[in-house]
Each structure stands twice: as C-alpha cells, then as structure tokens.
C-alpha cells in the first residue's frame, strides 16, 4: 500500500488548504485569538470553543451551515488525497493535520453524522510551548536528563497532553544531541532540528500503525521515541520493551490521573499477564504527568491542574502490589515530593 508523502517544508507537512477556507480560518482566529477548537456542523453557524463553551462565529453567508457547506469544507481540507477520502468513506472519520501559513496549524477530525459531514479543527500554534508557559512544576525539566524509561502524560481530551509532550520534546531537542523519532496521528507541533536530529512520522502517511512504527523506531538508533498515543496492547507492550532496552519513551494516554493510567495499562493485558506487566511498568516508568483543565475561580476561562507521579521506591512498590483502590499510591505520591 502506498501512502501520501510528507514534505520537508514545515507548513507543507499537512494538507494544503484552499484559499476560501484559509481566509475563513484566518478571519476566525484573528477575531477570536483564544479559540481552541473550531466546529463546523450542519444546522449551526461556525462555532469556536473557548473556556469550555461553544460560541457562534459570524461569517457572511454562513449564518447556518448546510450539509453542502460542510461537504465543501471537507473537500477543501482533503483536496485530491484519495487515500484520506477512502479512509473517511470506509471508517466514517479521519484525522488530518493542515495549516494556514503564518497563522496556525490545525488538527482536524472529519466525521460523518446523519448522512452529512461535520468537522472539528483544533488550533495548534506554530511556536512550540515551553514548560514554564504551561505552568508545569520546575522539576518536570528533570525529564531531559533521563537516559531511558517511560514518561506518560495523561488527561481527558483537550487537556493539553500534546502541548506537554511537545514542550518536553522541545527542551530535549535544545539541550541534547540525540536522535528523536516521533510517531503521531496526525503530526501536530513541528520540531525542527536543533541540537537533536528529529524525525516525525505520521500515521497512514509514513506508517500503517503505532506498533509497526514503534518496532521500527527501536531499530533506528533512536534515543528518544515519542508515541502520540498508546491505544492498544501491542503498542503498550512494545513501549515497555523499548523503555526496558535503553530508550526514553514519551507518550500520551487517555486517563484522568496516575492511578487510572496504571489501571488502563495493566487492564489491556489478560489476567495471567497483569502482574508481570505491573512489574515491568514499575521498573520502567519515570514520571506520570496528569493534567486537567478546570474552571478558573476568579476569572473567565480555565486553568490547568497538574498531578505528578514520580518513580521512587515507594511508588514503584505500590504499582507492583496492585493497589486496587489507589489510596496507597496517592499517599505515596504526596510523600514523594
């Protein structure tokens, strides 16, 4: 099977949007600089999500989107990419990255619903955030000194997992002369070569699955491997193996906190393997960073709440002992700081 090729130009490593949609997105972000997501749905005007709430956007001629309007937006995004078109038809949804040069990059999810298409576009800044901007504790910077092991970033959808991973990766890129391989679906932040050499691989464009790309990355003389998301047993198993064999693994996981992250990782394996997986995870993990956005108390919008589980003898012991209620692990987390 052939895949669409990626280009070297950072603004071209994604779908090339047509002028009409570029102008619309530029106008929306110019007027709503704090917009996180842009939603195009039949029967509604274009909407932005900011501070956890949707709000309509005034676009001349688009006071109420029709199925034909959203179909044109989809065609604008996918262009002549026949592979993407086929995946959308066969699976009912498709993730893709696209860009408005000098304005923003986007992670778009296109999906069918009630016989028409809807689109949600997440705005991704061209500038990679840093740890300080994300209000992460200073000792998170210690990750750049790790030579091996696993660092997980967890949280619900939209909590900023990708931003945290990008900030950590960027700091490593600035400080270490490493070979970094990322595996993403789709590529979000662009990481140019700095002190490190960075290769970014996109699912379906450069590799058919996380597990296939991860297995290959272990043979590519990589020091750091960033896996956009650990979704299945094979990927988790390979990530643990890579962490055990001298690679530093960075990855995201959909889980609300560290306790749930441990439960999710262990739970994808059959019962007879779960104790072994607990032992492997206890030895391999270095940090589990959990992030959640909560309503701000004294102003509009949301602020980040962060929980960090660091590898210590106490926390490793609790992971191995299958602390089912999580109380002992949370207590160990408090005492490890």
How many β strands by DSSP?
A: 14
Helix content: 25-40%
Give the strand line-up of the largest sheet.
Answer: 1-5-6-7-2-3-4
Q: What low-confidence regions span 5 or more consecutive residues with pLDDT below 50?
A: 1-13
Tally of alpha and pi helices: 10
Q: What keyword list fits this structure?
A:
seven-stranded mixed beta sheet; 14 strands; 10 helices; Rossmann fold; Beta-Lactamase; alpha/beta; 337 residues; single chain; disordered N terminus; 32% helix; 2 domains
Helix-strand layout with pairing:
Blueprint: E1 15-16, H1 19-31, E2 37-40, E3 47-50, E4 53-56, H2 67-78, H3 82-91, E5 93-100, E6 104-113, E7 116-124, E8 149-154, H4 161-175, E9 179-184, E10 197-202, H5 210-217, E11 224-227, H6 233-244, E12 248-253, H7 258-267, H8 274-284, E13 285-295, E14 302-310, H9 313-320, H10 327-335
Helix pairs in contact: 5-6, 7-8, 8-9, 9-10
């Amino acid at each position: 099977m052939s895949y669409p090729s990626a280009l070297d130009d950072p603004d071209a490593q994604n779908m090339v949007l047509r002028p009409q949609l570029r102008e619309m997105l530029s106008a929306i972000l110019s007027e709503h600089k704090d917009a996180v997501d842009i939603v195009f749905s039949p029967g509604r005007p274009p909407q932005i999500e900011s501070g956890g709430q949707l709000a309509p956007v005034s676009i001349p001629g688009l006071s109420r989107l029709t199925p034909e309007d959203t179909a044109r937006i989809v065609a604008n995004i996918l262009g002549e990419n026949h592979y993407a078109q086929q995946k959308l038809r066969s699976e009912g949804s498709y993730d893709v990255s696209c860009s408005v040069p000098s304005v923003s990059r986007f992670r778009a999810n296109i999906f069918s619903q009630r016989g028409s298409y809807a689109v949600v576009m997440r705005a991704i800044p061209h500038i990679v955030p840093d740890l300080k901007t994300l209000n992460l504790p200073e000792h998170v910077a210690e990750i750049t000194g790790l030579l091996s092991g696993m660092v997980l970033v967890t949280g619900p959808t939209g909590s900023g997992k990708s931003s945290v991973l990008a900030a950590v990766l960027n700091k490593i890129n600035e400080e270490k002369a490493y070979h970094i391989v990322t595996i993403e679906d789709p590529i979000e932040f662009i990481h140019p070569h700095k002190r490190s050499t960075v290769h970014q691989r996109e699912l379906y464009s450069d590799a058919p699955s996380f597990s296939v790309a991860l297995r290959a990355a272990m043979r590519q003389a990589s020091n750091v491997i960033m896996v956009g998301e650990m979704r299945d047993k094979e990927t988790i198993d390979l990530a643990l193996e890579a962490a055990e064999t001298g690679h530093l693994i960075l990855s995201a996981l959909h889980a609300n906190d560290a306790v749930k992250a441990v439960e999710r990782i262990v739970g994808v394996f059959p019962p007879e393997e779960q104790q072994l997986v607990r032992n492997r995870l206890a030895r391999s993990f270095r940090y589990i960073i959990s992030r959640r956005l909560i309503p701000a108390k004294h102003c509009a919008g949301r602020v980040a709440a962060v929980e960090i589980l660091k590898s210590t003898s106490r926390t490793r012991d609790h992971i191995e002992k299958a602390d089912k209620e999580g109380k002992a692990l949370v207590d160990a987390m408090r005492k490890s700081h």
